[in-house]
Amino acid sequence: MIYQEHFVQSVHLYLKEEAKPWLEQIPSIIKACEEKWALTVGEAYELSINYVATASTKEGREVVVKICIPGEGFDSEVEALKLFAGRGIVNVIDTDEDMQVILLEKLNPGYTLATSLDDEKACLAAANVMKDLITYAPTESRIPTTKAREENLRNIIEKHAEGLGPLSKQTLDQALQIFTYMNQTTKKHYLLHGDFHPYNILKCEDGWKAIDPKGLIGEVEYDLIQYILNVLPEDGIKEVTQKRVDLFTEKLTLNKERLLLWGYCHTVLATAWTVDEDGSYNKGFYQMIEVWKELYKEEYGEPSL
């Protein structure tokens, strides 16, 4: 089976020595899906690290088969999809835990919010989707919380005590301090998408719906940071970020100060995730660290945590 080059590279980066065996299993998993659900699996979408393809049932219904890369993400995604129950998000039809496969409804026409509207209209559409998604977290869940993100950053700092890539020790330490403060002062916990950005919002017959939740528990303000970090212009980044922050806080009645603080600490973490062995990193994310700092300082002064 011939795979997209970027997909193969991403899988090898994520799974290391386990990548080849998993890639070799995919054809047999597809065949098992066809037998279990009486499907004909078609072409794959543009892939990242999961194998996702269109399919049709024997009745002619269009569906999507998602073969999840081995790891902890499958359980959280399935639980989140079931808890959201189709409110603002794609419906799950069935799952197979042994194969780590999710059978989903197909959203039509299915183009992404990232390439469809001007920025303000896209943000308004995203805010409406988020409004549908907002729901309190369950009392018991296997879904990780934003505390896990804090621990992730703490582990990075332990391994890179003097800094990582373009991130100085001071920047990493300040981000961890803010992460800790934010988690300690969180009063209400919500079920979050965990990877809410314009490429994960698709056009459907009755508007827009999110796809591919990672599943996370925390504040709604945190869930919007990844959206704000994506599809930024080359010029006027600060102004666009300010407009996005103002629109989301107004439409969703959010705490602007907490959104800005989450923005800073998550963006430091997101930048750290992109630092490669060759020293390359996501320059857009890195640039946003200073933007969050400036926006907070202009509105609230230096943070006193």
Description:
It is a single chain. With 305 residues, this protein is an alpha+beta fold. It contains 11 helices and 12 strands. It has helices spanning 5-15, 19-37, 73-84, 119-133, 146-159, 169-184, 220-223, 225-229, 237-251, 256-274, 283-300, and strands at 39-44, 51-57, 62-67, 92-96, 101-105, 135-136, 163-164, 167-168, 190-192, 201-204, 207-210, 216-218. The strands form 4 sheets. The chain has a 5-stranded antiparallel beta sheet, sandwiched between helices. A hairpin with a 4-residue loop joins β2 (51-57) and β3 (62-67).
Which helices and strands, and how do they pair?
Layout: H1 5-15, H2 19-37, E1 39-44, E2 51-57, E3 62-67, H3 73-84, E4 92-96, E5 101-105, H4 119-133, E6 135-136, H5 146-159, E7 163-164, E8 167-168, H6 169-184, E9 190-192, E10 201-204, E11 207-210, E12 216-218, H7 220-223, H8 225-229, H9 237-251, H10 256-274, H11 283-300
Antiparallel strand pairs: 1-2, 2-3, 3-5, 4-5, 6-9, 7-8, 9-12, 10-11
Helix pairs in contact: 4-9, 5-6, 6-10, 9-11, 10-11
Main beta-sheet annotation: 5 strands, antiparallel
- Work out the strand percent: 15-25%
Total count of helical runs of at least 4 residues? 11
The level of helicity is: 40-55%
User: Strand order within the widest sheet?
Assistant: 1-2-3-5-4
Secondary-structure-based class equals alpha+beta
Kindly, what is the distance between the CA atoms of the first and last residues, rounded to a whole number of angstroms? Answer: 54 Å
User: How many strands appear in the DSSP assignment?
Assistant: 12
* H and E order: HHEEEHEEHEHEEHEEEEHHHHH
Shape, please?
Answer: globular
Task: Kindly provide the radius of gyration, computed on alpha-carbon positions and rounded to a whole number of angstroms.
Answer: 20 Å
Global mean pLDDT: 96
- Low-pLDDT sequence parts: none
